[in-house]
Every structure is written in structure tokens, then in C-alpha cells.
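Here's what a typical entry looks like (Dihydroxy-acid dehydratase):
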Amino acid sequence: MVRSDIAIITAYNDMLSAHQPYESYPQRLKQALHSVGAVGQVAGGVPAMCDGVTQGQDGMELSLMSRDVIAMSAAIGLSHNMFDGALFLGICDKIVPGLVMSALSFGHLPAVFVPAGPMSSGLPNKEKVRVRQLYAEGKADRHALLEAEAASYHGVGTCTFYGTANTNQMVMEVMGLHLPGTSFIHPDTPLRDALNDAAARQITRLTETAGNYLPIGQLVDEKVVVNGIVSLLATGGSTNLTMHMVAMARAAGIIINWDDFSELSDSVPLLCRIYPTARRISISSRRRAVCNWSCASC
């Protein structure tokens, strides 16, 4: 039996809630790979910054640039040309697009992206909005505001609203780059662990040595790109993806522009509203239901 060597590219840091769960992922993935006769190695790490933290700060102009830095950094990790496939760990704003661009630059390798999953619900959105409004009106002090924010974003996982990170998770699953049903399972749960193990097993099935060779350069075609755009439009996702999808597609040799988004939006209905476009919602379950519908329909 020929052994598969699998690269692990990680965007772990413990500054961002969405990326903190990745601390334990490499070791677990290595164990899962070992259980099926494969070997996993951390081939490289990439930076991960949060637009929400840097907004209005002196570092915010680095955010978009970081996408291309991530793409280049991950490519350096893969450049050793010793791997049969790659697992990519990252989820937030510029990280996923950068990792996808990197994976496509090594389009002969199969790739599976492993999400961190969403933070569990904290302070209800209605209450969070109420406290923010009171603070804006000068009727609540900074301490009350910070208490509300800490209660809203209180644990690990992607932030509890449908911003770019959670839109990334949706789009990646619909494009077939996440395992089906994995995007919106909370971190540090038995199901999350089982799905991560399944991702490790799946990447070994896609390698050339396994006989089911499916490199990412073959997987990501025009239909897959359109499916990603449709899922973005149908769920009212982050407008940042209208920029990133263009770059991701170009890395696959596919040319799209905003005219394509406009044309598709004429025929794609908005299936649901998720905070911040809705005041309240069971964000994990609703996103999961919409993602399952989108995957079944594409």
C-alpha cells in the first residue's frame, strides 16, 4: 500500500475567536490520517487578522493585502512538492480566499478545507442592539457597552452574525470544498470532532494513490464558481465575497466580474434573512438549513 502524505496549512492564532479552535486540529487530524495509513504534517502557517478588530485602527489598511500574503505563505508551505493532498485550516475574512488562491496555485493537489464552526449564541441580538443604541445616545456608559459586547462574543468560533467569516463557511460548503454539513457545527463538540476526522479520511480518498483522484484544479470549474455566487446571493451574505470570489475564480483560470453577480441576482431569490439583516434568528440552525438546501439545489 502506498502511503499518502498530507500537508496541513493552518491559520491558527488564539487572538481571534474563530481561529482559536485550530490549536488542537493538527494533532487530531494527524491521528485521523494515521488511522487510515496516511501521514499528516504541518507544512506551514499563515497570518490571520480580523477586520472587526482593526476597523478604524492604524492597521486596517493591511487587511486586504493580507489575503495575498496568505496565498503566498501557504504556497511556500506546499512548495516542497512532497505532498499528495492538503488540509486547510482557516475561516475568517481574508483567510479563506487567500487559502483557496494558494490551493489553486497547486491545482494538481486534492484539497479539503476544515472549518472551525460558529460560536454558540450569547446575548440576544435585540438586547445587543438596545445597549448599543443607548450608548450612542449617551444613556449607557462604556462599561455597560463592553459588558454587552463580551456577553455577545463570549466563546470560541466565528462571530454570532452572518458576516464574512460565516459567509465563507456557507460558500465553501456549497462549492464542495468543505465536507457537506460541516460548516455550522459548534467547536469543541463530539460532532465537530467526528467531522474533522471525516475530513482527514476524505482527503486520503481523493489522492492519486487512492485511485479516486480529484485535484482542486479539476473540482473548481465554472459551475462550482456559479454555485458559490448563487449561495452568496440566496443567503444575503457578505458583500466582501463579491470581491473575493473574483480573485478565487481567477486563481482557477475563470474570469468573472460584478456583471455576473448582477445577472445572477436577477434570478436568484433571497431565501432568508440572517442577523444583521434580521433582528433575531436561531443563527446556527437557520444557516445550516439554508446551506443544506443550497447544496441540494446546486
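The chain has 13 helices and four strands.

More examples are in the samples folder.
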